[in-house]
Amino acid sequence: MSGIMLAIGQEEHLGSEAEEDHPKNKVSFVLSHTHVPGGINEEGDKSWLVRASWGIDYDYYFSHAWSLGLHSDMVLENFEIEEDNIIQERSSPIALILTGGRHWEHFTLVAGAGMEFAKEENFALARVGAEYGWELPAEWEIAISLVTDIKFGGYNSWVFGLGFAKLF
User: Fold this and answer.
1) What's the CATH code, domain 23-167?
2) What whole-number distance in Å separates Cα of residue 125 and Cα of residue 27?
């Protein structure tokens, strides 16, 4: 019986060491495309727009399972959207989002809230999404992500990205 207790005590001790060895910080550069369902194309027709975008994300890991982050996205092109028969222009909008993440081995669910800023108008937003990552040597990671941004008083969008991250 004491051998079992010793083994359990060692596992608990190893678990806390593994937790300490886990990198606490992650910085990601994300190359992405923002999808806007209610966009206006070059001919003036309503259509699904796809615009190049990129982001820089920072995450702090409290444990292997939980993180808090600050994520940013910038659409590289201007575009117009139509919501409720009103056409709005968006000039290279930038979004800043405070996120929480729940992590499993390679899979992460994220949710958060923030703001999208553009010279025309700013929108509050909520974000939900998922990421799947592959570990690379020397604490590097490559990941794909899909998130949706729900903009209050504005339009909604999807962002599909490929991220390159450094953990430290």
Assistant:
1) 2.40.160.20
2) 22
